[in-house]
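User: Okay, second chain of the day. Same drill as before: sequence in, structure tokens out.
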Amino acid sequence: MSASAARLSRSRLCDAENQTAYLELGNGAYWWYWYGNEIEAHAHYLKLLVAADPQHKDASGLVKSLLNNKKHGTYWNSTRDTALCIEAIADYFRASGESQPDMTLVVKVDGKKQKEVRITSENLFSFDDRFEINGKALDSGKHVITFDRKGEGPVYFNAYLENFTLEDFIEKTGLEVKVTRRYFKLVPTERKEQVAGARAQVVAQKVEAYDRIEINNEGTVESGDLIEVQLVVESKNDYEYLIIEDMKPAGLEPVDIRSGYDWGGVGRGRGTLHAYREMRDEKVAFFCRHLPRGSHTLTYRTRAEIPGTFSALPAKVSGMYAPELRGNSDELKVSVTDRE
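Assistant: Same drill. Structure tokens below.
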């Protein structure tokens, strides 16, 4: 590998779960500058990596990362970066030999042949690449899907599963985007801060402060308790137009009743997560114009009111115009008792 590629590789991050690789350039916050275009930087890095080591294990991950970050379905941000991406991906195809497959692929479910397709350079972009199992053809229990290849060429696949479940405790799931929800009981505590008085003297002024006590699943709170809801959204790429919906338990009501922009969600990734918040009867919805890659936090407060045992259905994050982009948190059960 060349010295330039080796230096850049120090900033390369790999996501084994998502099978992607990318450079952590650290300039995403300066989007208004004419320089610092991450798409172009990744395209040039892919060209360099392919030229230095055509069989590098992370080259395919860079290709997938570029494809995942197309902004408009069929192109990136401009004709310039689109041309650079296509050129870099074409270089990878030529160097890796992926443009010349010669194989027969057999798809099996539980050992039974379901589909067979012949893939060559002539039909690489036109062969039937979809296989579906619907309804009763897939019963409950464990199933194994296998791909048997005869010949030469790489095999890439995606699997999507949709099902209706009656499980009592719904567990979290997600890949490209994930959301984690936590409840905290806010207990008032005395705290003072030193401020300047009317004559510039130092004055100890009492301020509103709370101790945060996490409420676990099947936890108990008292009527009147103030509860902070924390939503941590993790994104593996830069996305636009997402909605985060937090389903509230029936015995808790939000403290704020007015909808509007929420400027308090500071991201631990690149930049600040701003969202328009709507307070609805059954949920609190956050509409996010831009979600950068990284981890971000949204919070709001509720108050326990009605005694009983309630279930908060999972919080959800999804693409408003790309419904296949989605994730959900764990369900949470909480009991509210009368205050003595």
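Residues 173-337 form a domain with the Immunoglobulin-like fold (CATH 2.60.40.740).

User: Thanks, on to the next one.
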